[in-house]
Design brief:
With 298 residues, the protein is of the alpha+beta class. It has five helices and 13 strands. It has two domains: 58 residues; 199 residues, Sandwich (Immunoglobulin-like), CATH 2.60.40.10. A hairpin with a 2-residue loop joins strand 11 and strand 12. It is extended.
Length: 298
Amino acid sequence: MWVRSVLLLGVIAVAFVASLLILSMQSSAQSSVSAVGSLIVASTALVIAIWSEFLKRLILHPSLEFRFDPKSDVSKTEMVRIDERNGRQFVVFRSDCFYVHVRIHNSGNQAAEKVEVFIEELLQKQADGKFEKVSDFYQPLNLRWAYIHEVPGLAPGMYYPQITPKAEKALDIVHVLYPSSRTQFDEGKDSLDATKTALAFELVWKSSRRDWIREPGTYRCVLVAAAANALPVRKAIEIELTGAWDADEAEMRNKGLRVKLVNEANVARRVESMLSKLKKVGSRIAKYVKSAANVRAN
């Protein structure tokens, strides 16, 4: 979008320069005003014709944002395992389960089309308090939308077809099963303590390495929400899993599963990267100026 903005400014600048040239070539003040007026009208018509869609998007566009409320978005539910026999479905196992959601809100004035959210980066808190990237977790990976797991022609649960203006949709992030129930839902993992809880990320595609099942700890998950007609937005969600289980929702949120949205993750690292890029640009400019000075000296 910024490229189009630069080009649009270029068109306006060319029109302005052209008007100045015409002014200098006209002998009569009246004819100069008439020429400039005609040029402005023609330039405006040209800009509208070429950039009408761009100008429309400046006014009408979706705008995505993350929303989270720990009281409603960390909730207890029941996970059910269903088997099929002779064409009929049977419930063979039930277990208490806690889900963590975020809500994707469209604060714009146009519907967001084909919306997706993915994990850009997963970090874990270390003993020194710093967050480091989880090396054995494949990323980026898309998360599932809540209550919608299949759209014809698309990956199951990967895209939400449309989020209308001022509306929001829930997205699954992780779930936490009662520890002894994990094996009933094929969420067992040799490295886990069978008496403690574990995080299971709600990914569209789950690796056979089971890297989407994580042991207790504090994790920072950098999420990116994007749409076919909207700019991507980033937000980090911090999840602290202590390993303890409590059937009471309030107690589980206080002692076993603490979740909060935080500001853009790794701000320091991103600022450092930006400063590094600016330094490189400055170095190139200095080389260019030095080269130009040498040419003049010769």
